[in-house]
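Example protein
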Amino acid sequence: MNFEQGPIRPPSEADSLFVRVTRNCPWNKCLFCHVYKGKKFSRRSVEEIKDDILAMERGASRVESYALKIDSSGRITREVLEYIYHHEPNLLQIAFWLYRGGKNVFLQDGDNLTMPADKLAEILIFIREQFPTVERITTYTRAKTAGRRSVAELAMLKEAGLTRVHVGLETGYNPLLDYMRKGITAEEHIEAGLKIKEAGLSLSEYVILGLGGRSMWKEHALETAKVLSKIDPNFIRLRTLAMREDIPLLEKVHLGEFQLSNDDEIVVEEKLLLENLHGTGYLVSDHILNLLEDVEGNLARDKTSMLKIIDNYLSLPAEERANFCLGRRLGIYRYMRDMEDAERYEQVSKLRRHLIETGQDQDEFLIQYRGNFI
């Protein structure tokens, strides 16, 4: 099928249909991000986007016709997915979307509120016309861009069908925002977040654990908690800083200007953030880069239990913490309780002994290994 797809989406949008509204990122200067480097930002025309949506609708109709041939009920089953995989693989993404309910749409790329509000509203309405089963439409935007929109414009987008906005806060500490070249202040983040909420849109704010490194970790945690407590977003989504060759921050790491935190240090930072975080929203640790995936819950109800998970990790003997970190990063463990499996624990222990015998520092190994997941 002839329609565009952008490079990324949040993990929470894995079941969504992807509609590309803009290409790349209009800011594209953040030191910790590699996604759009070297690529020019552009807005797609309403006509282009509608053509893509119509192509997707035709694709959905084809999938549904295959389903009817395979099963008179017309349900999208695993048998249907397998048939499409072998006979028309270009329809697979749409087939999976229908298989998962056909309810969610995610607008790509990095900052779709740069589009004039009336044009974006036209696209939102068109999506719902072509796909009546859609219940949720979400998008990335920069807080700087959202802050330029009036509450009335944002409310109009909600009325047209937009339900949730994903915003990268990353940190609430102004010197760190400046260092990372985010192009925005904490105060502007607060203003934009409150405006989005006033318009009735659901708000997801992203935080990068470890972003302050070893020199700014405490300020990063405390000031980020302060900003998030003022915004009180519907969702706070945790990410963990990771490095790979095409990330600009890596140059500062090589120069010794920025020192990366290890897993233990990041968990201490996470605890400080959570202790000082107040609100009614939901904290989500929905990324494989996060060491403690089960630190998740409603801030008003589950904060104590989330802190207990962190304390349980920090109270482990050093050898067990090292074992868990290695096992989690290598995919052998998911949760701390997985260490109770003697076979898996011994498997990780052998790998850890190999690192020691070959003179490799585990922290350095894991910092490098984290880069495989971005």
In short: The mean pLDDT is 94. The first strand starts at residue 17 and ends at 20. Residues 320-374 form one domain.
